Amino acid sequence: MREIVPDGVSAATDLFGTQTAEAALALGVPAERISTIAAGPNPPGGVRATSGFDARPEDLNRIADAIAVGEITVPIAAAFPLEQIQEAVRLQAGRHVHGKIVINL
Fold first, then answer.
1. Is residue 103 within 8 Å of 80, Cβ to Cβ?
2. Which of 4, 44, 79, 91 suits a disulfide with 102, CB 3.0-4.6 Å?
3. 0.85 cut: is pTM over it?
4. What DSSP string runs through 14-35?
5. What does the radius of gyration of the chain's CA atoms come to, in whole angstroms?
6. If you average pLDDT over residues 22-29, what whole number do you get?
């Protein structure tokens, strides 16, 4: 990670377990800049547990705007037509996808 981001990581979100949160802590990311949705009620190192219940209505627009201007990059691993949704789910379930799976409607 230090090779990819030589200036350091400033924030992280862990979407599965605690591995990403633990790696971010090891890289020196402050716990208050790390969130997790799947680490249970007591995430490691003071990391913030969060969920969709914490979102405010204006958050979606703020995130969409940040993506539109390139402040946030969302990597797309694969795209599937709706007719192939089972294949998309199988790919995601393998937990080795590096990016988002998109379903085109």
1. yes
2. 79
3. no
4. E-SSSHHHHHHHHTT--GGGEE
5. 16
6. 92
Residues 42, 31, 46, CA angle at the centre, nearest 5°?
25
Q: Which amino acid is at 69?
A: V
Tens digits of residue pLDDT in 75-101: 899 999 999 999 999 999 887 888 899
8 Å CB contact between 47 and 14: yes
Say how far apart CA 50 and CA 28 lie, in whole Å. 20
Q: For residues 48 and 75, give the distance between their C-alpha atoms in angstroms, rounded to a whole number.
A: 24
Q: Which two tokens stand for residue 26?
A: 């090891």
Q: Which carries the bigger pLDDT value, residue 82 or residue 7?
A: 82
59-75: b (≥16 Cβ within 10 Å) or e: eeeeeeeeeeeeeeeee
As given in the structure block, the two tokens for residue 73 are 């990059």
Within a 10 A sphere around the Cβ of 79, how many other Cβ atoms?
12
Of 7, 36, 33, whose CA–CA distance to 19 is shortest? 36
